[in-house]
């Protein structure tokens, strides 16, 4: 990067704000633009379920800033972890960004800095009005933001950008809902057809007259029958010479269930999620909930978590802070905890094998440290290093002393 570009970006970063004398983005958040809402979340419960599970799972993960494995805090971490902006908590910010990423393929958040270049606010932007562009002179990535009265350009270090996979040569993530267009349209068509079948199933009768009637008379009889049926709560009177039989039209839901299973499978494939998490248990077999959650974390969450971590580390921390060992990290182990028996065995083995202290176990359980001996690594008395002389082992020494 040229030194002139650095100065230009630094000045812009120091003065940029969500609302200023020449621009105002405050009315973007939570607004429906041009009277159009093309979201599928409100019309497809399968996609809504996936996005809700992903966004809630990610926002619920413990997020902390570390320095060489120790939890630390500074101004930047306070903004990200406690109050990203005047309207949001950290949970709201991450869930909002993950929802936009899963719904639109991209999520953006503007990083505002004070005059000392410290992060002061992080605010999500509507992805419909943000476009990544490459500056020809420096070949750097900038973000074109379309405002109410003007167009603004934000350097990539001042914009958090998390996305789904990017196509060849692209800068934006692919919209997963567009990938599912055919599946959602098919699912909608089957549901509408099934609903019509359900609504029409209870209104079918066979009227048999003892004599022939012409077309006009037949239509008059049908309309009179329908009106009488509706006005009298389904009660019918059988007139002489007329035979009324209910025509049984059974609604068969098997096709609907199969369609739902196909839709769930396709949605799960696009979002890279185990289909069992969409309540489709047929053919799914897991030995334990821990095994299921491990699959969910490894195949689904880890790529997402890693993307957020790298965005935070690269754009919220300075190069000097990163060199000093600072970094942000989600604790995915919170989702991998087993049942009580498994967790007890895990801690027991860790303490006996000497790779966890009692205070570290207490930290996992959100208990205060005891310090002293509780902060030391211990090893079981019946285990020894392979290179230790057998005569130095406790059992051998006891036997030797008893013979004296």
How would you sum up this structure in a few lines?
With 404 residues, this protein is of the alpha+beta class. It has helices at residues 3-15, 45-60, 75-81, 90-104, 176-179, 181-200, 215-231, 254-270, 289-316, 319-323, 340-352, 358-364, 394-402, and strands at residues 63-67, 70-72, 106-113, 119-125, 130-134, 141-146, 151-155, 159-163, 205-209, 242-246, 326-330.
Give the neighbour order of strands across the main sheet.
Answer: 2-1-11
Write down the Rg: 32 Å
State the helical fraction. Answer: 40-55%
Largest sheet: 3 strands, antiparallel
Supply the helix-strand structural class.
alpha+beta
Distance between the termini: 79 Å
Q: Based on CA inertia axes, which overall geometry fits? A: flat
**Number of DSSP strands?**
11
What's the helix count?
13
Q: What is the average per-residue confidence, as pLDDT, rounded to a whole number? A: 77
Question: How much of the residues is beta strand, in percent?
Answer: 5-15%
What is the helix/strand order? HHEEHHEEEEEEHHEHEHHHEHHH
Q: What is the count of structural domains?
A: 3
Low-confidence stretches: 10-18, 27-38
Protein name: Portal protein
InterPro entries: Phage/GTA_portal, Portal_HK97
Pfam families: Phage_portal
């Amino acid at each position: 990067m040229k030194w002139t570009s650095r100065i230009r970006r630094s000045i812009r970063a120091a003065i940029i704000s969500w609302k200023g004398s020449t621009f105002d983005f405050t009315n973007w958040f939570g607004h429906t633009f041009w009277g159009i809402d093309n979201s599928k979340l409100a019309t497809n419960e399968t996609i809504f379920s996936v996005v809700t599970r992903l966004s809630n799972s990610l926002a619920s993960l413990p997020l902390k800033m570390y320095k060489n494995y120790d939890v630390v805090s500074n101004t930047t971490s306070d903004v990200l972890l406690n109050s990203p902006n005047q309207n949001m908590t950290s949970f709201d910010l991450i869930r909002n960004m993950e929802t936009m990423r899963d719904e639109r393929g991209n999520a953006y958040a503007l990083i505002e800095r004070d005059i000392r270049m410290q992060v002061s606010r992080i605010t999500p932007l509507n992805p419909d009005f943000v476009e990544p562009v490459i500056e020809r002179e420096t070949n750097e990535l900038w973000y074109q933001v379309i405002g109410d009265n003007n167009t603004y350009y934000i350097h990539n270090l001042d914009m958090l950008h998390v996305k789904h996979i990017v196509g060849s040569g692209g800068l934006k993530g692919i919209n997963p809902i567009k990938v599912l267009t055919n599946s959602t349209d098919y699912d909608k068509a089957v549901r509408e057809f099934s609903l019509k079948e359900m609504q029409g199933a209870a209104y079918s009768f066979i009227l048999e007259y003892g004599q022939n009637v012409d077309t006009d008379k037949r239509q008059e009889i049908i309309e009179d029958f329908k009106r009488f049926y509706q006005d009298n709560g389904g009660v019918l009177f059988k007139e002489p010479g007329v035979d009324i039989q209910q025509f049984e039209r059974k609604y068969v839901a098997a096709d609907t269930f199969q369609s739902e299973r196909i839709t769930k499978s396709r949605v799960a494939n696009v979002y890279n999620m185990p289909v069992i998490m969409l309540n489709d248990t047929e053919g799914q077999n897991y030995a334990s909930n821990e095994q299921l959650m491990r699959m969910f974390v490894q195949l689904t969450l880890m790529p997402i978590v890693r993307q957020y971590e790298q965005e935070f580390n690269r754009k919220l921390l300075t190069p000097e802070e990163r060199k000093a060992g600072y970094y942000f990290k989600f604790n995915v182990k919170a989702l991998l905890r087993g049942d009580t028996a498994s967790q007890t065995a895990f801690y027991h083995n860790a303490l006996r094998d000497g790779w966890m202290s009692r205070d570290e176990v207490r930290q996992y359980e959100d208990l205060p440290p005891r310090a002293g001996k509780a902060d030391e690594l211990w090893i079981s008395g019946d285990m020894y290093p392979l290179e230790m002389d057998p005569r130095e082992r406790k059992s051998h020494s006891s036997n030797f002393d008893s013979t004296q």
